[in-house]
Design a protein that fits this description.
With 512 residues, this protein is an alpha+beta fold. 21% of the residues lie in helices and 28% in strands.
């Protein structure tokens, strides 16, 4: 494979559009950079993954690249309903693919029809092999999946916990030299019995239907120490998890760092001074950086309205404009910018990524790596990219749960990590202050969700990063708590949002 070198910059392209490595030679002779993997069968976007090639000998570099796995896992449960009909549902930890597909199964010899009970005419086909007892299912454009019959205890990922894990004491989280100090709950004023009850409840959660809670990880830190760490359904501390829109709060963090480094903009800076406007509009001239941060831009951008041209799915599925910054800037104005009513707009948060890249003169993933990942000891991640190769700032970065938890601790400590300043304290304070709201009980700061948590007669203020499926980084300053939850109930808001209730039901009550 040819290697292109321009001064200290190095670029290597794998033939067949199978990936690109680009980086720079460091003073120690190693090459630090990123592996860019193209979209795949199950991955709709490209991803940037940090990678280091170590100088092994003269003109020889060695390194290991761990791209995001292009995979999908399906567990299908088949039951016989009253009357004898075969019904089934699928659990899919990566995307919750089966949510919209409760099935009726019909057999005709060895031919199998998987009929979607929620959508007329939606039928998948497959076969049943009586000798191997295997079922196949054909997905158009993806391929054929084969299912083998197994006992739930022998299939990793089917149950929240199995074997000895199901009744194990919580213990002290393992110290791994990732920056976290660990401790027993009692060492930071928490009751281990209540946290043990939380662990037992999570492990006993039966995956008995499409709407069953699907928590993959729950972590708790108090007073800067990790005291509770539970992984479920086959997940572990080293497995990276999709953070979905919790990544919006990460963008807010990066924007604060950018502002402090460059001084080139402020929350009240009009965005027309930062971007060229091809379709100028008097109302657009009044849109500020703060309006994007608080989802009060007034653009026709509403992720909860499929007819809105700025809806995230509409933007991402369009084939005419691969530049999503330009797509967003060209949106019509639906309401006067500003005010106190937030309208959920991923495209507006993503536009902030353009400000970060423009003012830092780095790609979004390069800036994240140098200004946040390295200071916090985050060594592994996958950042999703837009069609033009730029980092997507409205969510979707993959992080280890322990690393995601660090973002909450960083803000609880007013922008410091282990005593070192990373984010300006004033930016932290401004970000977690109520600027707008989705409703009276749901405030919004600078891409942080603000809610009250009631425990008995007490009410605790909290702010959180939140993402589809059950991704939460929840900070409760009054009791010095940070909680990270990773879940797999994608597309099922009622179920995934309920995962956050464990903070009020178990975590805060454990504080002594």
């Amino acid at each position: 494979m040819p290697v292109i070198r321009d001064g200290s910059r190095v670029r290597l392209e794998v033939p067949g559009d199978r990936g690109v490595f680009h980086g720079a030679v460091q003073p120690d002779g190693n090459i630090g950079g990123f592996w860019i993997q193209p979209p795949g069968v199950t991955l709709n976007s490209a991803y940037a993954t940090p990678a280091t090639l170590t100088l092994a000998s003269k003109d020889v570099w060695v390194g290991e690249i761990q791209p995001l796995a292009d995979r999908i896992t399906l567990f299908m449960k088949i039951e016989r309903a009253e009357g004898g009909a075969l019904t089934a549902f699928m659990r899919n930890p990566e995307f919750n693919f089966g949510l919209r597909r409760p099935m009726l199964i019909e057999l005709d010899g060895d031919r199998v029809s998987y009929i979607n009970k929620n959508r007329e005419g939606d039928v998948l086909r497959g076969r049943f092999d009586p000798e191997t007892r295997r079922l196949s299912m054909e997905f158009q454009g993806v391929g054929t999946f084969e299912f083998s019959r197994e006992g739930v205890e022998t299939m990793p990922g089917v149950l929240p916990a199995s074997g000895s894990e199901a009744a194990a004491p919580i213990g002290v989280p393992l110290p791994t030299q990732d920056g976290w100090e660990t401790a027993k709950p009692e060492a930071v004023g928490m009751d281990s019995k209540i946290l043990q009850a939380l662990a037992d409840g999570l492990r006993a959660n039966a995956p008995d239907g499409l709407a069953a809670p699907y928590p993959h990880a729950v972590l708790v830190a108090r007073r800067g120490k990790l005291v509770f760490e539970q992984y479920l359904y086959g997940h572990d501390r080293d497995r990276l998890h999709d953070t979905r829109s919790a990544g919006k709060s990460l963008t807010s963090i990066l924007l604060g760092i950018t502002q402090s480094r460059t001084g080139a903009f402020h929350p009240d800076t009009p965005i027309q001074t930062l971007f060229a406007m091809d379709n100028p509009d008097p109302a657009k001239s009044r849109i500020t950086v703060e309006h994007l941060l608080t989802m009060t831009s007034g653009l026709d951008c509403d992720d909860n309205n499929e007819a809105s041209p700025g809806n995230e799915d509409v933007m991402q599925s369009n084939r005419k404009q691969p530049d999503w910054y330009r797509y967003t800037l060209d949106l019509p104005v639906a309401r006067e910018p500003g005010g106190k009513q937030s309208v959920y707009c991923s495209a507006g948060i993503n536009l902030l990524g353009g400000i970060i890249a423009q003012q830092s003169r780095q790609t979004l993933y390069e800036f994240f790596d140098s200004e946040l990942a390295k200071p916090l000891g985050i060594k592994r991640y996958h950042m999703n990219l837009m069609p033009d190769g730029k980092g997507y700032a409205a969510g979707g970065i993959y992080l280890r749960p322990r690393d995601a938890l660090k973002l909450g601790q960083l803000y609880l400590d007013r922008g410091r990590w282990r005593g070192k300043r990373v984010v300006p304290a004033q930016w932290v304070a401004d970000s977690t202050k109520r600027h707008a709201e989705f409703d009276a009980a749901h405030g919004y700061g600078y891409a942080w969700h603000l809610r009250d948590i009631q425990v008995g007669t007490q009410v605790f203020r909290s702010y959180a990063a939140e993402g589809n499926g059950g991704q939460f980084i929840i900070v409760v300053p009054e009791v010095e708590l940070v909680v990270m939850i990773a879940g797999g109930n994608y597309g099922d808001f009622k179920t995934w949002f309920a995962l956050s209730n464990l903070v009020g039901s178990h975590v805060i009550p454990a504080v002594r």
